[in-house]
């Protein structure tokens, strides 16, 4: 099984993106079983990928693993990142009613 990938879309003008960077920095010290990349929407690459993934706000996390990619809008908790990273590996199953919406092949959770 390959490693899951987690992308964090940020913007230099976003007041919450700094907190998301701190969160992921601490989280990566706790858990290192995924590949991480931060993507700034202020760059050409970031704008292109934002359009491709349908990202309308930052911070947004995209987790790509075995199943459908998972999008998480807004600042998340370590508990939420654990849950959805485990889902991306097939370790945990999603229970109950699904909350969120789907754009293309991405399901956004809230």
Characterise the protein shown here.
The protein is 33% helix and 27% strand. The protein is an alpha/beta fold. The protein has one domain (4-109): Glutaredoxin, CATH 3.40.30. Strands 2-1-3-4-6-5 form a six-stranded mixed beta sheet, with helices on both faces.
Supply the key terms.
3 helices; 33% helix; single chain; six-stranded mixed beta sheet; alpha/beta; Glutaredoxin; 110 residues
Topology:
Elements: E1 4-10, H1 17-30, E2 34-40, H2 44-53, E3 60-64, E4 70-73, H3 78-89, E5 101-103, E6 106-109
Parallel strand pairs: 1-2, 4-6
Antiparallel strand pairs: 1-3, 3-4, 5-6
Quickly describe the structure:
The protein is of the alpha/beta class and 110 residues long.
């Amino acid at each position: 099984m390959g490693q899951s990938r987690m992308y964090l879309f940020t913007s230099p003008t976003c007041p919450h993106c700094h907190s998301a960077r701190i969160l992921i920095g601490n989280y990566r010290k706790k858990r290192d079983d995924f590949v991480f990349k931060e993507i700034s929407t202020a760059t050409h690459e970031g704008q292109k990928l934002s359009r491709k993934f349908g990202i309308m706000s930052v911070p947004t996390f995209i987790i790509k693993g075995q199943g459908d990619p998972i999008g998480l809008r807004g600042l998340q908790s370590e508990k939420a990142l654990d849950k959805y990273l485990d889902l991306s590996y097939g370790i945990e199953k999603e229970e109950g009613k699904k909350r969120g919406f789907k754009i293309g092949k991405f399901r956004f959770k809230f």
